[in-house]
Amino acid sequence: MSNPKGTALITGASRGIGAIYADRLAQRGYDLILVARDATRLAALGANLARRTGVKMTVLAADLNDTDDLCKVEARLRSDAGITMLVNNAGIAALTPLLQSDVDAMQRMIELNVTALTRLTYAVAPAFVARGAGTIVNIASIVGVQPEALNGVYGATKAYVLALGHSLQHELGGKGVRIQTVLPGVTATEIWETAGKSWRELPAHIVMSAEDMVDAALAGLDHGELVTLPGLQDDEEWKRYEAARRALAGKLSTSTPAPRYRVAA
């Protein structure tokens, strides 16, 4: 018998936020397809979750920066009619200033944070639209609206994820597809160590546990939020921000330059 919840495919699932999503969605009754590079760690996580929750677990070892591996995951998303949720969590961060950053490393970050996320979204969206149901969760970051905070390319990749989420909602929201963009603040995961700085070096009051972050994100999904900011205490601030952005949109394209740009003859 098919699982009424369906299957959630989670990228970057072997550790941190992805592993917590795997745990929480398994507890909610979803079968899982876990995607990450670390096959050994992924297999151990999958076996443990299957034993504890009884859900069906599939491990798909893949490096999303590798074209062949990425195509393998895309093919699974296109062909598996049981998939009802995609969690685009895989990503890397950077902390270095522009002039101290290696451009090849920045390109690899763009390929993972932007290109892979986009291709996986394109792979699953047509099936969701055809069925009139499906959920896409994209993990962005608060640096998507605060690009000055860390490395600028990293911030730009997360701004892309936020913009893509808005566009997907505009195009697919009326066709039964749920889109959620999650903007975590500083979260206690290994992504910081990979980027060259431990989250333990940061003020404790700005660091959220991965468990709390994912639980808040799933609560936001349950509430129907399109954008979830787990650390923002007053959601009215985001609503005002969004209202201002949308109000500005209708004023940005006109047939004549603004007076401040007119040059005297």
Structure description:
The chain is an alpha/beta fold and 265 residues long. It is built from 8 helices and 9 strands. It has a single domain (7-261), classed as Rossmann fold (3-Layer(aba) Sandwich), CATH 3.40.50. The chain starts with 6 loop residues before the first strand and ends in a 16-residue tail after the last helix. The strands form 2 sheets. It has a 7-stranded parallel beta sheet, with helices on both faces. The mean pLDDT is 93. Helix 1 crosses helix 7 (210-222), helix 3 (67-79) packs parallel to helix 4 (103-131) and helix 4 (103-131) packs parallel to helix 5.
Based on helices, strands and strand pairing, what is the structural class?
alpha/beta
Helical content class:
40-55%
Can you tell me the overall shape?
A: globular
CATH topology: Rossmann fold
CATH architecture: 3-Layer(aba) Sandwich
Q: How large, in whole angstroms, is the Cα Rg? A: 19 Å
Mind summarizing the main beta sheet? 7 strands, parallel
* Order of SSEs: EHEHEHEHEHEEHEHEH
What is the first-to-last residue Cα distance? 77 Å
- Name the poorly predicted regions: none
Count of domain modules: 1
The strand order across the widest sheet is 3-2-1-4-5-6-9
Output the CATH class name. Answer: Alpha Beta
Say how many strands there are.
Answer: 9
Beta-strand portion reads 15-25%
The CATH superfamily is NAD(P)-binding Rossmann-like Domain
* Contiguous helical run count: 8
Mean pLDDT: 93
